[in-house]
């Protein structure tokens, strides 16, 4: 039993090192993204059309690729300030190819902390889970012993 | 490996809950009943270890990661019903307290990871243990993980077939993404973990020698 307890302790100790890799967390930052709307002269949106955004740091490989929404909007999160190229391609051959100025204030590195569990929470999860299970089984064992006594 | 909430429609999650519920009642009565009091400490230790090893990620090629289940050793030592009950408890704790997996998909996850996989591990172990106990344990754990992975990928593939709104990725992609790491890396590590855990249990005299 001591060997099993030692093994459990070792596994618990190393678990937090890898525990963060599998879960999908998220991060919310207000005012961080830049939105661009593509529409025709009569106001009709270029809805659900292919779109690409090129960073000034690499004008050849798209920084972002996707489709406009039903109102013709696309949004991306710039990581450097400068002139960003935005392309919206309509299947019928219409499209938009323009440059958008990104100010240094929103084109900087990430500054906010991810929402959800922090690093400490992630590290503690295996330990907390194992402790809860131990408590459940321990309580059940003691309850059974008392009833049978 | 387990499916998160929102990836399966009620067409699949409700029947899975319906199938799992009576099995939970049966398994809990058998596993945690009055006659099983003396096995509770070992069961608790193995269940806690299963929870912990499911938190340890194994990096696999392709930018993703996988994890062990740690359930095969429960099935080999205490039977597939005990493994089903204990893995269901692990999945419930993960879903309720840590947001991993999910409550609506608990039936699917419990059946795939807690019943089909450990059941296959137990069957393979029983079939091969006369040849070699260690080879049987390793093969059982490896096979159990493959069955669990295949079951999850089949369910996700069925969901894509029924409605791609829930699961946009088709079965061939899901199957390849799940089965290749499972067949090559994770299954082997699960087999080694099972051998290691059974060896420790024998040394601690919590498991009879073969």
Write up this protein.
- The complex is a heterodimer of chains A (149) and B (210).
- Chain A is an alpha+beta fold.
- Helices cover 32% and strands 22% of the residues of chain A.
- In chain A, strands 3-2-5-6 form a four-stranded antiparallel β-sheet, with no helix packed on it. In chain A, strands 1-4 form a two-stranded antiparallel sheet.
- In chain A, a hairpin with a 5-residue loop joins strand 5 and strand 6.
- In chain A, helix 1 runs antiparallel to helix 2.
- Chain A starts with a helix and ends with a helix.
- With 210 residues, chain B is mostly helical.
- Helix content of chain B is 71%, strand content 4%.
- Chain B contains seven helices and two strands.
- Chain B has a two-stranded antiparallel sheet with strand order 1-2.
- The model of chain B has no long low-confidence stretch (mean pLDDT 88).
Topology diagram in text:
The complex is a heterodimer of chains A (149) and B (210).
Chain A: H1 2-18, E1 34-37, E2 50-54, E3 64-67, E4 73-76, E5 82-89, E6 95-102, H2 119-148
Helix pairs in contact in A: 1-2
Chain B: H1 10-32, H2 40-53, E1 57-60, E2 64-67, H3 72-78, H4 80-98, H5 106-128, H6 133-162, H7 171-203
Antiparallel strand pairs in B: 1-2
Question: How would you sum up this structure in a few lines?
Answer:
The complex is a heterodimer of chains A (149) and B (210). Chain A has 149 residues and is an alpha+beta fold.
The number of helical segments of chain B is 7
Largest sheet of chain B: 2 strands, antiparallel
Low-pLDDT stretches of chain B: none
Q: What is the terminal-to-terminal distance of chain B?
A: 31 Å
Rg of chain A from C-alpha positions? 26 Å
Which chains share the greatest interface? A-B, 37 and 36 residues
Mean pLDDT of chain B: 88
Indicate the radius of gyration of chain B in whole angstroms: 17 Å
Termini Cα gap of chain A: 24 Å
- Main β-sheet, spatial strand arrangement of chain B: 1-2
Side by side, the strands of the main sheet of chain A go 3-2-5-6
Element pattern of chain A in H and E:
HEEEEEEH
Oligomer: heterodimer
Briefly note the structural class of the backbone of chain B.
Answer: mainly alpha
| Class derived from helix and strand content of chain A | alpha+beta
State the shape of chain A: elongated
């Amino acid at each position: 039993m001591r060997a099993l307890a030692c093994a459990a302790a070792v596994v618990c100790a190393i678990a937090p090192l890898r525990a963060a890799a599998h879960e999908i967390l998220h991060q919310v930052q207000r005012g961080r993204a830049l939105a661009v709307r593509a529409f025709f002269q009569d106001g009709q949106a270029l809805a659900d059309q292919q779109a690409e955004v090129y960073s000034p740091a690499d004008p050849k490989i798209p920084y972002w690729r996707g489709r406009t929404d039903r109102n013709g909007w696309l949004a991306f999160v710039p990581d450097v300030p400068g002139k960003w190229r935005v392309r919206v391609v309509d299947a019928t051959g219409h499209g938009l190819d323009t440059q958008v100025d990104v100010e240094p204030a929103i084109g900087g590195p990430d500054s906010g902390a991810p929402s959800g569990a922090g690093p400490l929470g992630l590290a503690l999860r295996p330990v907390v889970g194992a402790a809860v299970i131990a408590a459940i089984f321990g309580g059940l064992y003691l309850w059974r012993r008392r009833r049978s006594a | 490996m387990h499916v998160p909430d929102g990836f399966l429609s009620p067409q699949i999650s409700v029947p899975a809950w319906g199938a799992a519920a009576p099995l939970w009642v049966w398994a809990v009565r058998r596993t945690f009943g009055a006659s099983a009091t003396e096995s509770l400490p070992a069961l608790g230790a193995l269940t806690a270890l299963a929870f912990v090893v499911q938190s340890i990620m194994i990096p696999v090629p392709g930018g993703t990661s996988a994890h062990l289940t740690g359930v095969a050793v429960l099935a080999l030592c205490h039977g597939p019903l005990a493994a089903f009950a204990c893995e269901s408890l692990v999945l419930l704790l993960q879903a309720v307290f840590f947001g991993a997996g999910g409550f609506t998909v608990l039936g699917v996850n419990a059946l795939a990871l807690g019943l089909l996989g450990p059941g296959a591990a137990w069957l393979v172990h029983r079939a091969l243990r006369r040849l070699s106990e260690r080879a049987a344990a390793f093969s059982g754990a490896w096979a159990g993980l493959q069955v669990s992975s295949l079951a999850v990928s089949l369910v996700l593939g069925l969901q894509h077939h029924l409605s791609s709104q829930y699961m946009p990725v088709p079965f061939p992609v899901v199957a390849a993404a799940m089965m290749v790491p499972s067949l090559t890396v994770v299954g082997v590590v699960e087999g080694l973990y099972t051998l290691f855990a059974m060896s420790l249990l024998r040394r601690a005299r919590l498991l009879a020698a073969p």
